[in-house]
Amino acid sequence: MKIGELSKKSGCSIQTIRFYEKQDLLEACNRSEGNYRIYDASSLRTLQFIKQCRSLGLTIIEIKQLLDTKNNPDKSCSSVNNLIHQHMVDVTHRIAELQELKLTLSEMASACTDNRKVKECGVLQLLEE
Amino acid sequence: MKIGELSKKSGCSIQTIRFYEKQDLLEACNRSEGNYRIYDASSLRTLQFIKQCRSLGLTIIEIKQLLDTKNNPDKSCSSVNNLIHQHMVDVTHRIAELQELKLTLSEMASACTDNRKVKECGVLQLLEE
DNA sequence: GTTGACTCTATACTTGGTATAGACTTTACA
DNA sequence: TGTAAAGTCTATACCAAGTATAGAGTCAAC
């Protein structure tokens, strides 16, 4: 199949597919006589794997490591498990940060609920501190 | 004061200060004979305001709007309040997304708690789906 | 007078794509 | 068979919010 079809089947944009190829996530595929990229079902599977990983927030470098690990079926999978675990720790940490931020924002919002003049605005006053 | 002192007092790096100037957040300051930037207490206050806004996650464009609004003390402050409110909505939304993600990651992590071979790894199997 | 600390500008790099321009290939239809 | 439309190609620039560097100039102390 050509890149347009792969794009539709995978839900990744054409530019993104070419971008992944340039980043060595997706290996260079065969070309038609007119130099069009020709993909097969295995490219689609890899692309779906990449998309799944991206939706979990894994970076391109991490995905590259996962793809590399997948190519060594007899090695230990501990690096995979560690990656997911560490990522979960990071996400947990980020959630805590955002909850803190939300609290600050809500305190700030309640400092000026009515419509005042700029010089009397409670929000701006808090921002000055 | 020169940029190094402003950097220490504000906690912003020297490059960041120059970057804010280029972005028109911090207005171009006076220069010494040797072309060094010379700042005063008002520059420091503005920089602290910017830093406070950035710590809340406001973008440079939004901060520019806030600084602009601050310069019109008699206008209505509703745009300020709306900005903070909308930002809080966005943060709330982002927290929900990350909590969803955390759940997925924790399910994934529990699919392979022991150390197996890559081809038997429960995490990788989930990632394939 | 020279060393070291400080500052200057300009430029490149980061992440994960997205958006062009300009050229080429292929397909559809009259 | 000709041509128009759709698809694809490469290369390049752009986004946000800085960070890092090179190479040059300035300033203060010894």
TrEMBL record, chains A, B:
Q: Which PROSITE patterns match?
A: HTH_MERR_1, HTH_MERR_2
- Keyword terms, alphabetized: DNA-binding
The superkingdom of the source organism is Bacteria
- Annotated transmembrane regions: none
Pfam families hit by this protein: MerR_1
Where the record annotates domain HTH merR-type, the positions are 1-69
Gene Ontology molecular function, alphabetical: DNA binding; DNA-binding transcription factor activity; metal ion binding
Asked if the keyword DNA-binding belongs to this entry, the reply reads yes
Q: Which GO terms describe its biological process?
A: positive regulation of DNA-templated transcription
Q: What is this protein called?
A: MerR family transcriptional regulator
Taxonomic source organism: Paraglaciecola hydrolytica
| Source lineage | Bacteria, Pseudomonadati, Pseudomonadota, Gammaproteobacteria, Alteromonadales
